[in-house]
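Async update (no meeting this week)

Hi team, since we skipped the sync, here's where things stand on the single-chain job. The sequence we agreed to prioritize is pasted below, unchanged from the tracker. I ran it this morning and attached the output directly underneath so nobody has to dig for it. Comments welcome in thread, and please keep replies under the output.
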Amino acid sequence: MQPRLSTSKSWTGLPPEFSQKAAQVFAQNFRDESEAGEFLVQGRIYADEILLQIGYLQKGRLKQTNFEVSVDHSPNEKAMDKLFFAIDVLGAVFESHFEHLREDEGEEIEYPLRWEEHEFDGHPVYLKYSTANTALEAEADRLLGLGGSALYNESDVQPETSQDALVRAEVDPELAEQVSQAIRAGRFRPVEH
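Output:
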């Protein structure tokens, strides 16, 4: 997840309980889809913006449908209010997306791959779409020793810069060999969330 604002550098992740509850809300509201897949929630709270990403991963597929919303935030506003608003926005986006899939199965929609401004309930919001599989990304980060679960984090990547792991990674050759052997032997299993 990359922030929309270039000033967004320091962030706090969402509490795991919040992410779990939000995923449950989406599963309840989209019962048919939740039986065929799962909803994944992650987000970041920056000083000036709040990012929320909700992904949908259909069983047996690698491609994950992700919609992200960025809303402006200031220290005098309650972050939880903004997060609940962001959930409403993404709920409406997924409702429209799933409705389109049910009605126009063969027709592709082009969603914005970069932040695009929209209005929701009279407030500006910024949306973008991706197909990154968050479980695979998390496993790659773990293998590369990137990321972590710190309460407070610093972004070292500027918005819209390369997220290609090969560009940024320092590869541990011993670990890479172990992973390669595990994959060839069929012992490798991605971490399930």
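Quick observations from my side:
The chain has six helices and seven strands.
The longest helix spans residues 79-103.
Reply here if anything looks off.
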